[in-house]
């Protein structure tokens, strides 16, 4: 279970997050709605430890593992999608070739393609970013504007994937400024003026 308690963050004199609290339980699919610049990415960066909160705490249960797609996914641009995913998973010695192959194929991406990821479209890069966020059996998944640049078929594939993750008891938080067609959330929260309601 993910517990965010009274988290605040300022950049210079601007309050980006003000006393934000959030509890995410296993099997929950939560939507955080907010315009660009509302603090969604900042909140995710604090949860993942990429940024330090000015105040407040983030806690996880023992055994929880976070997977995240935040802003523009960064890759080794001259390597293939497969080599990128293998490199990232091997950091924790958790590369599961069959699983990665299936996830890529489910998104109509060819695991055997020798095309460098630097040549991928925005939507294709997003798909690879989603795969890296879930390929190591992470049980808390944070997805920041995940369908950016993805076509209608890819959005349907994404919705099907999230339904499977939810059925497996994974907790998923999607942050976006608009609705994703076909996705049914357990809760929808709004991040506005630094406050999550």
Automatic annotation (TrEMBL):
Keywords: ATP-binding, Nucleotide-binding, Transport. SUPFAM superfamilies: P-loop containing nucleoside triphosphate hydrolases. Residues 2-197 form the ABC transporter domain. GO terms for molecular function: ATP binding; ATP hydrolysis activity. The keyword Glycoprotein does not apply. The keyword ATP-binding applies. This is ATP-binding cassette domain-containing protein. It comes from Lactobacillus porci.
């Amino acid at each position: 279970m993910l517990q965010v308690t009274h988290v605040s963050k300022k950049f210079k004199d601007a309050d980006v997050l003000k006393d934000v609290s959030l509890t995410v339980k296993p099997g929950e699919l939560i939507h955080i709605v907010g315009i660009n610049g509302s603090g969604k990415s900042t909140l995710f960066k604090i949860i993942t430890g990429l940024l330090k909160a000015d105040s407040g705490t983030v806690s996880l249960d023992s055994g929880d593992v976070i997977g995240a797609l935040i802003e523009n996914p960064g890759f080794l641009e001259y390597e293939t999608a497969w080599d990128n995913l293998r490199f990232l998973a091997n950091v924790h010695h958790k590369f599961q070739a069959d699983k990665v192959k299936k996830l890529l194929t489910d998104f109509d991406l060819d695991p055997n393609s020798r095309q460098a990821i630097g040549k991928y479209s925005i939507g294709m890069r997003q798909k690879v970013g989603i795969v890296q966020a879930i390929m190591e059996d992470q049980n808390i998944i944070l997805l920041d504007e995940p369908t950016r640049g993805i076509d209608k078929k890819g959005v349907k594939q994404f919705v099907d994937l999230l339904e499977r993750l939810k059925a497996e008891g994974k907790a998923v938080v999607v942050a976006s400024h608009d609705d994703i067609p076909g996705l049914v959330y357990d809760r929808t929260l709004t991040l506005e003026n630094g406050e999550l309601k």
